[in-house]
Every structure is written in structure tokens, then in C-alpha cells.
Amino acid sequence: MPDPNRDYLTLALEQYWFAPPVALWRAIELRVLAAETFPRPVLDLGCGDGLIAQVLFAGEAPVEAGFDPWLSQVRKAPASGAYRYVQLARGDAMPYPDASFGTVFSNSVLEHIPNLDPVLREVARVLKPGGRFLATVPSDMFRRLLAGYRERDAAGDRTGAETYAAAVDKHLEHHRYLTPTQWGKRLELAGLWLRSTRYYIPSEVEALWDRANATYGIHPNDALFNGRPYYRWLASPRLRKLGYQKLVRLWAVRTLGQRWRRAYMQDVLEGGVGGGLLVVGEKA
Asked: Per the structure, how many domains does the chain have?
């Protein structure tokens, strides 16, 4: 099982040093996921390049299977050593027999899928009875907790706040932000039942993340975000041959690993809301 005491912030910064805010969000997701159990066999829905599974399951036997619809990612994922098998596939047509897996997990994937219901039905199909479904997604509060949204809304500029959030949606290619109740209904329609949900990324942490996206040039280079993409230039793959990026990576791991430690460890208070949501489902 994943180790909840592992330093996922340092591990994520080592992997995503070129995009530090991505590392912060991923590290918190990993810390949240590591507190869960993953009955084997495990399927990684939307495995990407394999870095998340590589960090989450470090020191364990490889995850039984992962798949992704993007060929470039499927070509990279095997190099992570995190999987026994990686396949090119779509979420609404998984190439696995019925009742094949004890766990299907998905990290920051479902919000990017336009038509979610067929994917959830496939999750239910490939899960064994009693199997677990674990997904991390942006929550129903994600847009309203963005620093750019809150600042504009507090100034009475609701139109500006919505414009800002819509630009973030477009840049991140997010299609939905469901409430826990809405997730329960979607899972039930697919043949799953909702065991629990858990908010993570407190409001102040999401505000820090949103501002950091501008600072480190992750947002589009647009006046709306007041971005300063100097860090992105320094981290550009085109400049890798110059040799200095090892120092940039070291700076990110050491400095941001300390500067963002409190944010990484901060949980949403009981009864509160956050920008991320862990959804835990089960097949009857």
C-alpha cells in the first residue's frame, strides 16, 4: 500500500521542478491518496506518463495495468517502471474483461473527459464486486477559491471573476465541477455507490497555488493573469543543453520544499470545503 508518511512534496518537486505549482497540487493529491487502500489488482485510469503511480507506489510491486488515450504518454509510461502493462485505450472502451480489478484509480483525469457517464460504467464493469474506485478531481468549489476569482469578486466585479474562472477552465480543459451529492448520483447511475468524499486544498492553499501559476508562468501569458513567465523560460527544454537547469531543479526542491511545507500539510477543517475532492466509490 502507499506510504502516507512519505514526503510527496519533495518527490513531486523533483519530478515537476519545471512547473512548481503543478508539483504542489500533485503532492497534496498524493498525500490524500496515500491514506487510502488499493486492493490489488490495480488499474490506473488515464495513467499519463506514469509519474504519479511511480511516486505513489514507490517500493511496491508494479501496478497491474495503466492506460491512456494519448500515444505520446503511453510511450513514456513504461519507462517509469510503475506498471506491468500499459495500453493505448479510451475510458469508455477499456480493453479488460469484466470484474478484473480490485481498484480503479484516477488522478486529475475525469474533469478532462467531456462525456463522463460511459467511463464510469466501464469502471463499474471492470471492477470486482466490492472493488474500490478512487478519484481525485477539482471540487465544486474550485472556481470560487481561485485567488483571481476571489479578489475580483471581493471588489464587486462578479463579471471579472467569472471571466477569470472561465479562462482557467479553458486553459486547464476542465469540463465539470461536481458536488459530493452529484458524484453520488453519477456513480449510482453507473452501478457504483459512493462510500465517501473528502475535500482537500484549503482556500488559502488554492489561492497560493493560483498566484504561483502566474509567478512561474503556468497560466497563459495573458494580461488577465498578470503572468511573469521568466521561470518557464529558465526551465524550457530548449535550454537543457546549457547545463544550468540542474541548479534550478535543486533550488526548486530545496527552497519550495521548505516554503510550501505548511501548505502541503494543511488539511481542510472538518465541515469545510476545498478546491480538490477525493471521491471513493465501491461496486456492490
From this structure: 1
